[in-house]
Amino acid sequence: MKRRTLAALAAFGALTLGGIGFPAQAQTPPKTLRMVAHADLKILDPTFTTAYISRNFGHMVYDTLFAQDATGKPQPQMVEKYTTSKDGKQWSFTLRPGLKFSDGAAVTSADAVASLQRWAARDSLGRAMTAVGAEWKATDARTLTLTLNEPFGMVLDALAKPSGFPPVILPERIAKLPATAPLTEVVGSGPFIFKRDEWVPGNKTVFVRNPNYVARSEPPSGLAGSKKTSLDRVEWLYLPDANSAISALKRGEVDYIEQLAPDYIAPLRTDSNIKIGSGGAYQGFLVMNQLHPPFDNPKVRQALLQAVNQERFVAAMGFPLDMRMAYCATWFICGSPNDTSAGAEPFRKADVAKAKKMLADAGYKGEKVVLMVPSDVPYLNAEALMAAQTMKSIGLNVDAQTMDWGSIGARRAKRDASDAGGWNMYVTVAGEFDVNSPISNAYLGAACGNTLPGWPCDKKLDELRTAWLKETVPAKRKELLDAFQSRAYEAVPYINAGQYSAAFAARASIKGLDKMWAGLPTVWMLDK
Questions:
Q1: Burial of 17 (0-12, 13-18, 19+ CB in 10 A)
Q2: Which of 365, 96, 133, 102 is nearest to 226 (CA)?
Q3: Residue 10 burial by Cβ neighbours in a 10 Å radius (0-12, 13-18, 19+)
Q4: Can you give the pLDDT at residue 443?
Q5: How confident is residue 471, by pLDDT bands cut at 50, 70 and 90?
Q6: CA-to-CA distance for 195 and 333, rounded, in angstroms?
Q7: pLDDT in tens, 393-450
Q8: Rounded to whole angstroms, how far apart are CA atoms 155 and 151?
Q9: Cβ proximity of 285 and 429 under 8 Å
Q10: pLDDT tens-digit map of 359-371
Q11: Separation of alpha carbons 128 and 482, rounded Å
Q12: The pTM is what?
């Protein structure tokens, strides 16, 4: 009896749900893209950290006033129109009508002003604008103005900055929260909404299409144009084991691997079901904590630089020959408009014996060097092990401490000495967006009082960068660029460990891969 009653209730439910003559419609499964992210997401605030995983998160859920197109040119994004005075000191920006945050609230000029003020306090370009008197004001709901004491030739470049600290627009109430800790509330106007209820740190981050996103009419190009997506859902999966990630890709369980482990590039090139694409030019970074011994001494930093063999570093990281450079003299990207060899001559050839003498002459006293070694990113692990070997070869007392990349991202913010839970060095890489000019390469600027992990500080470098920013005569600008790089070889704000090209891997059936912007996972361009 009970079983018959349940069956009758089920039948009645089916009738009432579908209606007589109107059968229930099968629900279309959401179109989901599953991507293996390069790191675990821990910080949700792209204005607090330069970690690429947080930057990528920012571009998923937020938008910016301007954005770089595929050629690197700034284009209006949230802005409908703008004007500037003849002397370049007065700017006015009008937001596009109808812009909304993911919670349905209208985006206003007050939101933009508060967001830009927060961004300017942390970013190298924002700080440079502040130094020439930048003052932002909201004049009505859709209009904001910028007033400068001096012309600043990179206003639009700053507002379209794609990496480092991208100037994302937040609700005013969130943007005005203290900048001493990362933001945890996420309300954006980008193409996706962050599904906090499905976020599993160390495993998965989920996004769904933002129904309140207002797209531009122009086709997508780089980070500019329409970000309207055909995807209903995007899942970032954290699979630190490269074998597991590749197996999942081959079986079709994941669609896209953001950063392909170097050892798998050559084998996957022969797989017709997989497409390998360019992930952009990258530079290896050895980042030193310059608040504490021994790297508070530029002579010690120079000694280590003298011992670094770029070819050995990129070879250890596993990239194929056609994707790596034997040596790159510039602190920028070799082959970029700012490529220069100024100041490089003494360091072109790695010389361990010379480096040992330089270290001794610098007065090194055997202080312990705590090196944070990432366990879950193979090429960074190789870079760190090569750094440890190089440091030991010249007599540095290395204490290599292994941890996952997310933990390194959190620990590198600590300003404490290494014996109090701090650190002395970690390794990372930077894409061309964050390397290719004196202003985008935040570490080279070395503005004293910055918030960069390692806290490089060199007044002369900062002054040369400012002069380069202001100079409009090409020949004089090139002279300043060379002087800037020469000073970088003296101050050594970080160490260039070599240049290579990264790669992504995706199922060949995924559409739109040819539109992807090298160096950033612009997944809203993709379709299944």
A1: exposed
A2: 96
A3: exposed
A4: 87
A5: confident
A6: 37
A7: 999 999 999 999 889 988 999 999 999 999 999 999 998 888 988 888 888 878 888 8
A8: 9
A9: yes
A10: 999 999 999 999 9
A11: 20
A12: 0.78
